[in-house]
Amino acid sequence: MANGNKSNQLTAEPRTETRRSELRKLRLNGRIPAVVYGSDMEGTPVSVDAKEFKKLIRTGRTEMLDLVLEGGRRVPVLIKDYQERDGKWLHADFLKVSKNKPIRVRVAIDYQGTAAGTKTGGMLQVQATELEIEALPDDLPSVIEADISGMEVGDKLTAGDIRLPDKVELISSAEELLASIVIPRAVEAENETAEKAEEDATAGDAAADDES
After folding, report:
1. pLDDT, tens digit, for every residue of 149-201?
2. Is the full-model pTM beyond 0.85?
3. What is the full DSSP assignment across 25-45?
4. Phi, psi angle pair for 31, to nearest 5°
5. How far apart are CA 15 and CA 91, in angstroms?
6. Domain carrying residue 129
């Protein structure tokens, strides 16, 4: 779903630390080194509170928020990227956006339902977890929902099959494979062995008939 006009807020503090030891100390104090940048804004080093950032990241990268800089200046941004290791936040990138200018982002796919084919021996195979889309910041969905409940063994789901929200354009190729229902290799191999045995038996019966 799109986030509408609702905007979260995150306070950023100026950052001058660049050495690894200084950045490590910053993280130990509950801060995340970050950079905010845009087409009309040079990369500005800042730091944000790790706990507050964690609350925001749960809503998805495409949620627009106001980054409050030094002096109370508010900058509308998206969480462009972040690095996390062993549950610890290492770095974050914020992209300044214009509410009146469409932007391209990759949004997570939320596969919903249980594929019918998995109940008859099939296995869900996911090839993609994100789609690239374009929309105005206020129209960007936090996730893209994909209903897979009707998929049977042999069915494939492509990017073009996804129904996007209004005002959202698909940038990924419509032919990009997202998910499919396949027969597990072990079962497939077992079926092939059974088929070959049946063919051999049929061939043996035919040879016996010829001899008689």
Report:
1. 999 999 999 999 999 999 999 999 999 999 999 998 755 555 555 565 565 55
2. no
3. HHHHTTEEEEEEEETTEEEEE
4. -115, 155
5. 13
6. 104-186
Q: First-to-last CA distance in the chain? A: 73
Rounded Cα distance between 37 and 67, Å, is 11
Arithmetic mean of pLDDT over the chain: 85
Q: Which residues contact 204 (CB under 8 A, 6 or more apart)?
A: none
Give the pLDDT score at 18. 77
What's the total number of domains in the chain?
2
Percent of the chain with pLDDT over 70: 81
DSSP string, 54-120: HHHHTT-TT--EEEE-GGG-EEEEEEEEEEEETTEEEEEEEEE--TTS-EEEEEEEEEES--GGGGG
Which amino acid, one-letter code, is at 73?
A: R
CA distance 3 to 139: 7
Backbone angles phi, psi at 135, to 5 degrees: -170, 170
Residue 157 falls within a domain, yes or no? yes
Q: Is residue 193 part of a domain?
A: no
Q: Is residue 79 within 8 Å of 50, Cβ to Cβ?
A: no
DSSP helix/strand/coil, 15: coil
